[in-house]
Structure formats: structure tokens, C-alpha cells
């Protein structure tokens, strides 16, 4: 169990360092960087490389935003296997629904509970 | 960033002056901070996913979903109490790249615009910052899944 935590830390940390390099050296805005990362995650899953990384690093691969692109492709491919090309659209959010719905629900609850500062 | 060719000499000399006075970003320090804070978020995520595996019968593959939702919930609390901004100032990408950064983008936008009302303010601006992530994520996933499905149909892979 302990090596799992170690690799989660290292891999997750390295992905964040890659993000920081995009910020500092390539002078990208956070919005550009995160969009880029999601696309990279989707491409990696398209090539079948993301799943081995997730098996190896656990949360180190599923917590960074790259996993969002990965699970979008994953959901689309799952459904596409059953229903063909239509499945690409119908299955898109199959795996990611929790992240999006959590963000919407908690975003609204947050807006109800907290007042803007400053 | 505009068109570089159309700059007057004054603008060019000003740009040089600007570059001289620009503070150098401490890249190495920023990277180290991003590394350990980002790693810490992932350790927390790993602990949460183990919790779901042991107590709620999720498998290693499916435990990612509730973990992400829980992380977004944590992001809501941290954002609401103003802690996430501080972490962001310290850690840079270490707080933006994990999924909590996505949560923070949605939640901070909705808290910020609540004064404009719940329908037009919160509802309309919720995805102001996170929308680009959704757009490019969904569109690239669509293209990739489409190509892959067609290739599988043709028996290429």
C-alpha cells in the first residue's frame, strides 16, 4: 500500500511540475495550460497509455486534470463498443459525470453558503 | 500580444525597458512548491480512494469517480473559506492542475457572481473559467473516440 502512496505523490507531483513549467517558461495562462493538459490526457488515453499509468500511480494519475480527458475518451469508447458511432456522443460523460455534477452541485451550494470577499 | 511587425521604435525601446525590469520568475522554487503540494493533493486523493475501496465496495477502476467528487467537495470548503487562494499563491500549478483546481475554478466563479443573482450571476458565470477545460476536453475526446471507433470498425486496431 505504501509504494502506491509514494508513486501517487511522485507522479502527481511531476504532472504539476509540468504545469508549472508551462506557466513559467512557456508563459501560458492557467486556462491554456489546463486545456492543454485535458487534451494531452485525451490523446494519451486514445493511444492506450493512460490506463497503465493509472494502474501504476493510482491517484497520482486520476487526480490531475489530465484524467478528465482520459475518462471522457473512456466513456465514449465504452459506449461506442456497444452502439457504434452514436455511442461516441451518448457515452461521453458516462465516466466523468461525477466530477462535473459534483462541481455544479457544490458550486451552487458554495454560492448559497459563502459570500464573496473583498 | 499583438502583431510584432507593426511596432514603432518607441514601442520597441519600451519593450526592451520592460524586459529589463521584469522580475525573473524563480522557476526552480516554483516547480518544487508545485511538486510537493500537487503530490500532497494526490496522496489525499489516494487515501480517499482507498477509503471508498474498503468501505463502499468500489474497485480500483471505479473508485476514481467518488474520489473526484469528494475532492471537489473539499475544494468547495477550501475555496469558500478563502484558503484555496492562499494555496494557489504558494503552489501555482500544484493547486491548479489537480481536479480540486477545476472545482475551485467553478466554485470561485459562482461565489463571485452571486451578487448578480442566482440565475444570471451564478448560473451564467459558473463555467466562466472552467468552460475552456470542458470545451477542449469534450471536443478532443470526441475526435479521438471517433477516430478510434472508425479504426476499430475497419479492423486496423
TrEMBL record, chain A:
Protein origin, superkingdom: Bacteria
Name of a matching Pfam family: SpoVAC_SpoVAEB
Signal peptide start-end: none
Keyword Membrane: yes
Membrane-spanning parts: 6-26, 33-50, 95-114
Organism: Cytobacillus gottheilii
InterPro entries assigned to the protein according to its UniProt record, in alphabetical order: Spore_V_AE, SpoVA
Gene for this chain: spoVAE
Name assigned to this protein: Stage V sporulation protein AE
Keywords: Membrane, Transmembrane, Transmembrane helix
Automatic annotation (TrEMBL), chain B:
InterPro entries: Spore_V_AC, SpoVA
Annotated transmembrane regions: 34-55, 67-84, 91-111, 131-151
This protein's record includes keyword Transmembrane: yes
Pfam families, per the entry: SpoVAC_SpoVAEB
Keywords recorded for this protein, A-Z: Membrane, Transmembrane, Transmembrane helix
Domain of life: Bacteria
Alphabetical list of NCBIfam families matching this protein: spore_V_AC
Stated name of the protein: Stage V sporulation protein AC
Lineage: Bacteria, Bacillati, Bacillota, Bacilli, Bacillales
Amino acid at each position: 500500500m505504501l509504494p502506491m502512496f509514494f508513486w501517487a505523490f511522485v507522479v502527481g507531483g511531476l504532472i504539476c511540475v509540468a504545469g508549472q513549467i508551462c506557466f513559467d517558461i512557456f508563459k501560458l495562462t492557467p486556462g491554456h495550460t489546463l486545456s492543454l493538459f485535458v487534451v494531452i490526457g485525451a490523446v494519451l488515453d486514445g493511444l492506450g497509455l493512460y490506463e497503465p499509468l493509472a494502474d501504476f500511480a493510482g491517484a497520482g494519475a486520476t487526480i490531475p486534470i489530465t484524467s478528465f480527458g482520459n475518462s471522457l475518451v473512456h466513456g465514449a469508447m465504452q459506449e461506442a463498443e456497444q452502439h457504434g458511432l452514436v455511442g461516441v456522443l451518448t457515452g461521453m460523460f458516462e465516466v466523468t459525470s461525477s466530477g462535473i455534477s459534483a462541481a455544479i452541485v457544490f458550486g451552487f451550494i458554495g454560492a448559497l453558503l459563502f459570500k464573496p470577499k473583498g | 500580444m499583438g502583431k510584432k511587425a507593426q511596432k514603432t521604435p518607441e514601442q520597441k525601446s519600451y519593450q526592451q525597458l520592460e524586459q529589463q525590469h521584469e522580475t525573473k520568475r524563480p522557476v526552480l522554487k516554483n516547480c518544487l512548491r508545485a511538486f510537493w503540494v500537487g503530490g500532497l493533493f494526490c496522496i489525499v486523493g489516494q487515501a480517499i480512494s482507498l477509503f471508498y475501496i474498503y468501505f463502499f465496495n468500489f474497485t480500483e477502476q471505479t473508485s476514481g469517480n467518488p474520489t473526484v467528487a469528494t475532492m471537489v467537495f473539499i475544494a468547495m470548503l477550501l475555496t469558500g473559506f478563502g484558503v484555496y487562494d492562499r494555496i494557489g499563491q504558494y503552489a501555482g500549478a500544484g493547486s491548479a492542475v489537480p481536479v480540486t483546481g477545476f472545482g475551485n475554478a467553478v466554485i470561485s466563479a459562482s461565489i463571485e457572481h452571486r451578487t448578480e443573482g442566482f440565475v444570471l450571476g451564478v448560473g451564467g458565470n459558473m463555467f466562466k473559467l472552467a468552460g475552456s477545460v470542458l470545451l477542449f476536453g469534450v471536443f478532443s475526446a470526441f475526435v479521438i473516440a471517433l477516430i478510434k471507433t472508425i479504426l476499430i470498425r475497419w479492423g486496423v486496431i
